[in-house]
Amino acid sequence: MEVRESGLADAPPVLLLHGGGVAGWMWRPTLAALRTPVRAIVPDLPGHGASASDDYRSHGETVTELERLLEQRAPAGATVVGFSLGAQLAVLLAARRPELVADVVVVSAQAKSIAMPQLTLAMLAAAAPLAKWRRFARLQAKELFVPAALMPEYLADSARITKATLLASVGENLRFTVPPGWARSGDAGPTSLVVVGSRERALMRDSARVLHESRPGSGLRIVEGVGHGLPLQRPDDLARLIDQRLARTHPSG
Known about the structure:
alpha/beta
């Protein structure tokens, strides 16, 4: 994976995991709004952005790569923030390797599998060429609240995504359920906050409650007036939540 680091070398490490169809650039507005100095670790997940040459294969393989990344760059543990697809990866990472996760902020993670995912994937396969059509990509960008300043990168990355990456990443997303380790690691492992927008689909709001209720000690935050795109729709609000979490895990930072 292509990985970018920014910030102070001795600041609290924060691993930021983007959603499907975008890349690490989606975190720029949130990082700009943070008040707490951090060392931001921002990968482009397989099949996305600068990592587009290596197709996305599975959540399991991607989390294994993220484990290696944290072992190398934040072995004492990092705050992990994930959005949508990246939020599912954050849940898996916290469940599998709680010692590498000081805290986890899960934003808009689907955690209930849908009925007949094969039908959805078949329709997606047929529509896959549309992802390279700029007009269609602009409509998708609107759904994610991509600002004008980041539109060139969104359009470029949308054109790079292969059919294999699209089907694998969406398939994993549709089939995702709460992993057993998520509940077990709540007692002695990382703290956690589950976040969802009040205007997201009922499935997403239900998923947030499932993640919260299945993990002892977790928090649940419903952000009013927000759809599926908090990091780009209201980056100041997300930055405020992250600042609050960092104050808990790094009180002297």
